[in-house]
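Hey all, sorry for the wall of text incoming. These are the two entities for the joint prediction.
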Amino acid sequence: MDFLVSNFESILFFVVAALTVAGGVGVIALKSPVHAALSLLSTFLMVAVLFVLRHAEFLAAVQVLVYAGGIMVLFLFVIMLVNVKGIGPETAFLTRWAPLAIVGGVLVGALLALLVLFGVLAAGSGDVSALQTVDGTVTGNTEAVGITLYTTYLVPFEIVSVVLLVAMIGAIVFGRRDAGLERRSGEAGP
Amino acid sequence: MITANHYVMLSLVLLALGVIGVMMRRNFITVLMSLELIFNAVNLNLIAFSFRLGDLAGQILAIFVITIAAAEAAIGLGLIIALVRLKDTVALDEASEMRS
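and here's what came out:
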């Protein structure tokens, strides 16, 4: 019991990480898009738990609301809307480039093993209070993120809002029935 | 003790899964979901290093990444609707007109 209590963070991390990876494998391995979407949903929720473990509570809430709530509903809506039939076999996994890919994968793995062995990133365990502090006053994480976002990062925030507007207009244009996409014979548009 | 290393490892695995999905699958919807996996890998890295360095900037950047991911999902799903209207399929191989 003492072991469980004293290592709770580590145990929780490994369980949640395993579930995250399992969800990711499900996304790329499951045949049915609906099953893949539900698998992706579990990955999103597990990533939100990992955010909480790293004291990013506001981001965890945003992850659940935006990803698991918004984007996932959008995916499921489109999947049910287009009613996908079978689209034939997937491409072969092992082609003549496979040896090259294995060499590349081993090299990247070795690089990461070096990273871990020499502990490049491990030194220091982080400062929780720094993530909740604005100008020396300790506040909540959400408050600190909000104050930083609306003062230091105000201009990027406004730019991103314009990007969202452009994406919305783009989605509307693509979704219009008379977007000119159905014309196959190449006559001039209106 | 969980360190930034663990998060980088997990993030790498998620990134690899996402890249495999983007490159291997022919279903447009699954490719978009694999892209979301990649976005999540990036966010995990940002949060881990935000904690490691004690700096809020990583969390702010993660918010921006989530915003762009939402925009990307909207555009991508609009493209799926357009492709289905035009070709009546979601197989990416069918959309190859620009290849001569």
